[in-house]
Amino acid sequence: MPLPIRSALRDFIGRHQPFFETTTSWGQGAVLLRECHYLSQELPPLEYVTSVRSLVFRNDAVLVVRNREGWHVLPGGRREEGETLESTLHRELKEETGCLIRSSRLLGFVHFHHLQP
């Protein structure tokens, strides 16, 4: 019998050590979150992957995006139902930057934990 999803996520997170942690607010302070960043080649359970972000390199340069919300080094966005992570990445980068990428590789993941109900 498979593990319940929450147990699978807890077990996955427990196998990794964050290299950076912070507390942040989202939506003009409406939602308080603990943000933990991990370097890993292992994907989290896909049921919990809600968005994809990317560092985009071209030769020795890194793409930085500016929009009405400010400057962003990690363009990307929400995963749509039934979409693979790779197709989400390609679609979001095209929408946000106009860029097409040749290849990608997993650097890690970020776990957001709600600190309020």
Folded structure, characterized:
It contains 2 helices and 9 strands, in the order αββββββββαβ. It has helices at 5-14, 85-97; strands at residues 20-26, 31-39, 51-53, 57-58, 61-62, 65-67, 70-72, 76-78, 108-114. The strands form 4 sheets. A 3-stranded antiparallel β-sheet has the order 1-2-9, with no helix packed on it. Strands 3-8 form a two-stranded antiparallel sheet. β1 and β2 form a beta hairpin. The model has no long low-confidence stretch (mean pLDDT 88).
* SS summary, helix count: 2
Strand order of the largest sheet: 1-2-9
Order of helices and strands: HEEEEEEEEHE
Q: What is the distance, rounded to the nearest whole angstrom, between the alpha carbons of the first and last residues?
A: 31 Å
- The average pLDDT is 88
Shape: globular
Fraction in helix: 10-25%
**Stretches where pLDDT falls below 50 for ≥5 residues?**
none
Number of strands: 9
Tell me the fraction of residues in β-strands, as a range: 25-35%
Major sheet details: 3 strands, antiparallel
Rg over CA atoms, rounded to whole Å, is: 15 Å
